[in-house]
Every structure is written in C-alpha cells, then in structure tokens.
Automatic annotation (TrEMBL):
It comes from Amycolatopsis cihanbeyliensis. This is Uncharacterized protein DUF2516. It holds the Pfam family DUF2516. InterPro entries: DUF2516. Keywords: Membrane, Transmembrane, Transmembrane helix. The chain crosses the membrane at residues 6-25, 68-84.
Length: 98
C-alpha cells in the first residue's frame, strides 16, 4: 500500500509542475502590452511568478516538509491559468464574445 501512495503523490506532484510549466510557456508567448491592456501585472512579473511556481513544484514534494512551497506554487500557477490567461486571450482577440 505505501508504494501506491508514493506513486499517487508523485503523479500529483508532477501534474502540478506540468500545469506550472504550461502557465510559464503561455506567459512567455504573450505580447507584453496585452498584460497592461488586460489590467494585470506586467509580463516580467508573471514570468517570475509562473517560473518560480514551476520551480517550487518541481523541487518540493506534494507530501512532505516542503508541501507549503509546493502548494503556494500550485496556487500561483492556477491564478495565472484561471484569471490572467482568459483575460489575455480576450484582449488579444479584440474583446469579442461569441
């Protein structure tokens, strides 16, 4: 049973790290002026936030003494994915809603 728990926690850990990596790559690929047009922080700030969150999730375990850093990284990546990313997409499409 402990081996199963190990693999489940590792899967959660790396799924979070991949979400952070996706957020970082998306932040990297966006235009810098889109961030200010969307009324969000600047592009370098979001690159630092998403890059740091990805590093935290890759370096610290989901279950262990560094879990607080892993959890903070996950929250930072999710804020980008559910708040900033949709606004950037909307701004770059011209604000049209279908």
């Amino acid at each position: 049973m402990p081996l199963l728990v190990y693999w489940i926690t590792e899967a959660i850990r790396w799924a979070g790290a991949l979400a952070g990596l996706f957020a970082f790559v998306h932040a990297l690929s966006q235009r810098a002026d889109a961030y200010t047009a969307a009324d969000r922080k600047t592009k370098p700030i979001w690159l630092a936030i998403t890059g740091g969150s990805t590093a935290a999730m890759a370096l610290f375990a989901f279950f262990g003494p560094g879990m607080i850093f892993w959890l903070a990284g996950l929250i930072a990546a999710l804020v980008y994915l559910v708040d900033v990313r949709p606004k950037l997409i909307e701004v770059q499409r011209g604000g049209q809603s279908w």
